[in-house]
Amino acid sequence: MIDIQNLHFSYKRKNVLSDLSVQFQPGYIYGLLGKNGAGKSTMMHNIAGLLFPKQGKVDVLGYVPSKRQPAFLQEIFMIPEEFHLPDITIGRLVRDHAVFYPKFNQQQFERYLSEFQVPLADKLPQASYGQKKKLLISFALACNTSILLMDEPTNGLDIISKSQFRKVLASVVDENKCILISTHQVKDLENLIDRITVIDNGNILFDQSIPNITRHLDCRLAQDSFEAKEALYAEETFRGNVIVTTNNNGHEGKLDLELLYKAVMNNPARVNEAFHRQPAVQY
Ligand SMILES: Nc1ncnc2c1ncn2[C@@H]1O[C@H](COP(=O)(O)OP(=O)(O)OP(=O)(O)O)[C@@H](O)[C@H]1O
After folding, report:
1. Are 65 and 2 in contact (CB under 8 A)?
2. Residue 77 to residue 21: CA distance in whole angstroms
3. What's the predicted TM-score (pTM) here?
4. Whole-number CA gyration radius for the chain
């Protein structure tokens, strides 16, 4: 569905993506993680055809995004980290923009707005940042595009709205849709994403499905200091050492996204190596 091969991208002389290759398949929600400035937004903009590769190939649904063909644009929606909504009503916004998305569904749109408790009658200039964000998310989901790119979608959402977001998103994914979410709020993605992709220095550092992660790794409290010393990653807490370790106990490991992310950033080679071993857990 999305096939990126040897992508190089730079802003003038600033190299951001270098020889990046990755695939994103339909039917999955991907969590895109990485430090500030790692290149996550830049990669998403290349997928959306909003930035053009310097070298390499980006194929999205069989289209070259940089050509920005209408048949491609109606199948992709990107919610950027920073956005501006025009000075109009929600009704007018829908009338003006839904026309570009043939699969837009007004009933779905109203249902999402109601789940997020955003009144349809609201005028955009009077809405808060969080309300505007929820409106944009509702509109994006109601467009029913095959590809949905979300850059920090939960920024600005209150606690209840974040769980609504998880609930709504889990309900829209199907075997034809591919959803990419870039975020630093990893807790917001827990129990939602199917795969984690970590970008660092413009390249893919880690890319595994959640079932494969829990088959090979376990995130838990260390039983003793020896175990903490031997772990792939250990962190001292008031409860003792929490660790990311290889899963040798024959059942599905526990996943702590934040801890796993730290383990990957701390020693990617060692974490990736754990996936080359035969897992104790077999399905
Ligand atoms: N328009 C631009 N012109 C020049 N450099 C840019 C531009 N946009 C981004 N950059 C630089 O490109 C690099 C990657 O930025 P990008 O926004 O893709 O990172 P990111 O992983 O999404 O970061 P964050 O998590 O902070 O949103 C950064 O060093 C940034 O300063």
Report:
1. no
2. 22
3. 0.92
4. 20
- Which residues have C-beta atoms less than 6 Å from ligand 1? 11, 14, 16, 34, 36-42, 81
Task: Give me the mean pLDDT over the 94-106 stretch.
Answer: 94
Residues 274 and 232 sit within 8 Å (Cβ to Cβ): yes
ipTM of model over 0.90: yes
Which domains, from first to last, does the chain contain? 2-201 (3.40.50.300), 210-274 (no CATH)
Amino acid at 25: Q
Nearest protein Cα to ligand 1, atom 10: 11
Closest ligand 1 atom to 39 CA: 18
Atom of ligand 1 nearest to the CA of 38: 21
How far is residue 50's CA from residue 66's CA, in Å, rounded to a whole number?
7
Residues 6+ apart with CB under 8 A from 260: 196, 213, 217, 219, 244, 271
Residue 38 Cα to ligand 1 middle (Å): 7
